[in-house]
Amino acid sequence: MLENIHSAEQLRGLASRKRKPDEYRSVRHALIQEEVEKGWEVVKKSKTTTRLRRPKSHDKHLEDRVWTLMYRMGFKHLSGQGGAYLGVERGEPPPPDSQIDVVAIDDEVAFAIECKSSQTQRRFSDFASDLAKHVSLRDTFTRAARSQFPAPAKRPSLFAIWTSGLVLSDNDRARADQASVAVFDQEELVYYEQLVGQIGIAARFQFLAEVLRGRPIPGLQLTVPAIRTRMGKFTAYSFSVVPEYLLKIAFVSHRARGKASDIDAYQRMLNKSRLRDIRKYISEGGIFPTIDPCISNGTMVSSHA
Asked: Quick one: which of 93, 140, 257, 265 has the fewest CB in 10 Å?
C-alpha cells in the first residue's frame, strides 16, 4: 500500500503552507518564552494564544519547494504532510525506511523523489547508501501506484534525488545513471520554478521530457495520418495534431538551463508577455510560414497544430 497520497484538489491548504519560507504555529501565552528560546518569534497575540513564526530548516524548505513545484506543475495526486509511506498496514506505524519525501502521480508517470540538503556546501558522502535505499523501494512503489491509481496506459515509475548544498562526484552521478535515478540540484530547482511561473502546468511536460529523454511513454503514444516527403537527405512527415497533445510530446531546450544538453540550444526562457503576443497574433489570423523541424534517426518530422 502507498499511504498518505491525496488528490491535488484536497491539498490547497497544504500547498499554501508549503509555498512559504517560514513555518507557523499557535501556543498558549504561558509557553511563549519556551518557544522563543527554540527559535520562534512572536507574530501576533490573541486573547488566548500567540501566533509564532520561524524560518523552515534547510531540509524542510527544500522538500517543500520540490513538493510545491510538483503541485504547480499540475500532478493529479501528491503526498501529504510528512511524505508518503510504502508497505504500511492500516493502523500500524510506518517503518522509517518506507518513507518517500515527495510523491507525484498523473496519468503519464508516477514520481518518487528523495530530497537531501546541507546548510553548508559539502560533498555528498552518503550518496551511495541513500541511492541504494531509494532504489530498493522501486518495485513496491510501482506495484502500489499501478494498483491504487490506475492509468489508461502502462505508466512508468520515475525515481529522483533532489539536492541542495551537496556536491556529487562523477562516480556518484554514474551510479545514479546506472540505477535510472535522475539527480537534480538547487540550480535546476530555480530553473523549473521560474519556468512554471511563466507557463504554468505546461512546464511539467518539459520536466518529464528531460527526465524521460530517450525513453518511450506508453500513455503518450498516438497514431495520426501524415504526408511523407523528402527534404534534402531526410525523410519528412507533415501532419496535424491538437495543441494539447503536441504540448505533451514537445521539448523546448532553453539557454537558461545551463546544462550540457542545452549547449546547442537557441531558445530563450519563455515569458508570459511573449506568449500573450503570440496568442493574439494567431487569433487575428497570423501564421508562421516556417516550421522548425525535429530530426530523429534520420527522419524529419514537421507538425502543424
From this structure: 93
How far is the C-alpha of 226 from the C-alpha of 220, rounded, in Å? 17
pLDDT tens per residue, range 100-127:
999 999 988 999 999 999 999 999 999 9
Average pLDDT score, the chain: 82
Question: Coil, strand or helix: which one is 208?
Answer: helix
Q: Is 19 helix (H, G, I), strand (E, B) or coil?
A: coil
Identity of the amino acid at 24: Y
Q: Are 113 and 160 in contact (CB under 8 A)?
A: yes
CATH of domain 57-211: 3.40.1350.10
Residue 266 pLDDT > 50: no
Domain definitions of the chain by residue range: 22-55, 57-211, 222-304
* Secondary structure E strands in the chain: 2-3, 5-7, 22-28, 41-45, 49-55, 77-79, 84-86, 99-100, 102-105, 110-123, 157-167, 181-184, 226-231, 234-240, 294-296, 299-304
- Looking at per-residue pLDDT, the higher value among 271 and 65 belongs to 65
Of residues 151, 165, 145, the one with CA closest to residue 104 = 145
d(CA 31, CA 28): 6
DSSP, collapsed to helix, strand or coil, labels residue 305 as coil
Of the two residues 232 and 161, the one the predictor is more confident about is 161
